[in-house]
Amino acid sequence: MSLPVEDLAEHFRAIIDGLGEDPDREGLQDTPTRAAKAMKFLTQGYEQDLAELVNNAVFESAMDEMVVIQDIELYSMCEHHMLPFIGKCHIAYLPQGRVLGLSKFARVVDMYARRLQIQENLTREIAEAIENVTGAKGVAVVIEAQHMCMMMRGVEKQNSRMKTSMMLGQFRKSQATRTEFLNLISNNR
Ligand SMILES: [Zn+2]
């Protein structure tokens, strides 16, 4: 059960205090409220519902070739450090009778990214959601992201990228389908 902004702000105030800062100095006076609002926004995926999100955007179609949506921007928060991870998501699916409106792919990505996440689970959840709403013969999701918890702290590695993939249905069964997808997304970069 998530707290209202004012209550959440009290916790941020305690964190600022706990860091040895003065939460009452001028620059920090509104920070607890701003931070609470920002955190609410970054985790708003918890309040969303998949069926509601894709409502009215699943269309009948005879299209049965691979559809690829590439380079969907992704902003999420790692559940281990509550620091951002940022990257791109690529989605492909093989429709059988139903296609999903283009903007909905980005909305599905955001719905699962705007939570406390690990990249592995995020990848799987997006793939399963697309399979669920479209009934596709196959769904593939690849995410490549850079993790602030690795760049700003800990091992401080600036150029490492994490790549995760989830292949469902035909993408899992057929090497040729998988290869076609991976070739399509490896172009243009
Ligand atoms: Zn982390």
Summarize the structure.
By secondary structure, the protein is an alpha+beta fold. It has 8 helices and 7 strands; from the N terminus they run αααββββαβαβαβαα. Helix content is 42%, strand content 26%.
Can you put this structure into words, describing what you see?
- The chain is α+β, with helices and mostly antiparallel strands and 189 residues long.
- It folds into two domains: 5-42, no CATH class; 55-186, GTP Cyclohydrolase I, domain 2, CATH 3.30.1130.10.
- It is built from eight helices and seven strands, in the order H-H-H-E-E-E-E-H-E-H-E-H-E-H-H.
- The chain has a five-stranded mixed sheet with strand order 5-2-3-6-7. Strands 1-4 form a two-stranded antiparallel ribbon.
- Strand 2 (67-78) and strand 3 form a beta hairpin.
- Helix 4 runs antiparallel to helix 5 (119-134).
- The protein starts with a helix and ends with a helix.
- Bound molecules: zinc ion (ZN).
- Residues 78, 80-81, 83, 147, 149 line the site of zinc ion.
- GO terms for molecular function: GTP binding; GTP cyclohydrolase I activity; zinc ion binding.
- Its EC number is 3.5.4.16.
- This is GTP cyclohydrolase 1.
- Residues 9-185 form the GTP cyclohydrolase I domain.
